Amino acid sequence: MLALGIDPGTAICGYGFVELTGSRLKALEYGAITTSSKARPQDRLLKIHTELTALLEKYKPDVMGVEQLFFNRNVTTAIPVGQARGVILLTAAQSNTELVERTPLQIKQSVVGYGKATKEQVIYMVKKILNLPTAPHPDDVADALAIAICTTHCINNILWRNR
């Protein structure tokens, strides 16, 4: 199974492809779609759509995991992130890619074993689980890989229960 994890954002949209073979997880590709703060909002969203579409066409993942919006501090970033998230959901629908949405708490619980884990703990576990030579950078990429890991766990559990 190939899962794509997406950490939505307009400035930095992290992505990570994680393959599950048996019980082994492997990162195939990961990175970030970045946009200029000087670009018009619609151009930033178009860039996210265009680059994500190309990634979906290249890798054809079985499922895409996306972090649900959760803002308790900086509400001003909620609208642009929500817009990016909308573009991501639309792109998934256009490519007929299955979608799984997870909260930050569920992602941390799945990857670290503790729903209130720190950013550093998540990065450490992503590096360890995927046997990466260095920690993924920026944090948005590590988050995307964590979302992909969580997505593989979620889908695997559903498949196991439906046997």
UniProtKB/TrEMBL annotation:
<keyword id="KW-0460">Magnesium</keyword>
<comment type="subunit">
    <text>Homodimer which binds Holliday junction (HJ) DNA. The HJ becomes 2-fold symmetrical on binding to RuvC with unstacked arms; it has a different conformation from HJ DNA in complex with RuvA. In the full resolvosome a probable DNA-RuvA(4)-RuvB(12)-RuvC(2) complex forms which resolves the HJ.</text>
</comment>
<keyword id="KW-0233">DNA recombination</keyword>
<feature type="binding site">
    <location>
        <position position="140"/>
    </location>
    <ligand>
        <name>Mg(2+) 1</name>
    </ligand>
</feature>
<keyword id="KW-0963">Cytoplasm</keyword>
<dbReference type="GO" id="GO:0008821">
    <property type="term" value="F:crossover junction DNA endonuclease activity"/>
</dbReference>
<dbReference type="InterPro" id="IPR036397">
    <property type="entry name" value="RNaseH_sf"/>
</dbReference>
<protein>
    <recommendedName>
        <fullName>Crossover junction endodeoxyribonuclease RuvC</fullName>
        <ecNumber>3.1.21.10</ecNumber>
    </recommendedName>
</protein>
<dbReference type="GO" id="GO:0003677">
    <property type="term" value="F:DNA binding"/>
</dbReference>
<keyword id="KW-0227">DNA damage</keyword>
<keyword id="KW-0378">Hydrolase</keyword>
<dbReference type="GO" id="GO:0005737">
    <property type="term" value="C:cytoplasm"/>
</dbReference>
<dbReference type="InterPro" id="IPR002176">
    <property type="entry name" value="X-over_junc_endoDNase_RuvC"/>
</dbReference>
<feature type="binding site">
    <location>
        <position position="67"/>
    </location>
    <ligand>
        <name>Mg(2+) 2</name>
    </ligand>
</feature>
<dbReference type="GO" id="GO:0048476">
    <property type="term" value="C:Holliday junction resolvase complex"/>
</dbReference>
<keyword id="KW-0234">DNA repair</keyword>
<dbReference type="InterPro" id="IPR020563">
    <property type="entry name" value="X-over_junc_endoDNase_Mg_BS"/>
</dbReference>
<keyword id="KW-0255">Endonuclease</keyword>
<comment type="function">
    <text>The RuvA-RuvB-RuvC complex processes Holliday junction (HJ) DNA during genetic recombination and DNA repair. Endonuclease that resolves HJ intermediates. Cleaves cruciform DNA by making single-stranded nicks across the HJ at symmetrical positions within the homologous arms, yielding a 5'-phosphate and a 3'-hydroxyl group; requires a central core of homology in the junction. The consensus cleavage sequence is 5'-(A/T)TT(C/G)-3'. Cleavage occurs on the 3'-side of the TT dinucleotide at the point of strand exchange.</text>
</comment>
<dbReference type="InterPro" id="IPR012337">
    <property type="entry name" value="RNaseH-like_sf"/>
</dbReference>
<feature type="binding site">
    <location>
        <position position="7"/>
    </location>
    <ligand>
        <name>Mg(2+) 1</name>
    </ligand>
</feature>
<feature type="active site">
    <location>
        <position position="7"/>
    </location>
</feature>
<dbReference type="Pfam" id="PF02075">
    <property type="entry name" value="RuvC"/>
</dbReference>
<dbReference type="GO" id="GO:0000287">
    <property type="term" value="F:magnesium ion binding"/>
</dbReference>
<comment type="similarity">
    <text>Belongs to the RuvC family.</text>
</comment>
<keyword id="KW-0479">Metal-binding</keyword>
<feature type="active site">
    <location>
        <position position="140"/>
    </location>
</feature>
<dbReference type="GO" id="GO:0006310">
    <property type="term" value="P:DNA recombination"/>
</dbReference>
<feature type="active site">
    <location>
        <position position="67"/>
    </location>
</feature>
<keyword id="KW-0540">Nuclease</keyword>
<dbReference type="GO" id="GO:0006281">
    <property type="term" value="P:DNA repair"/>
</dbReference>
<keyword id="KW-0238">DNA-binding</keyword>
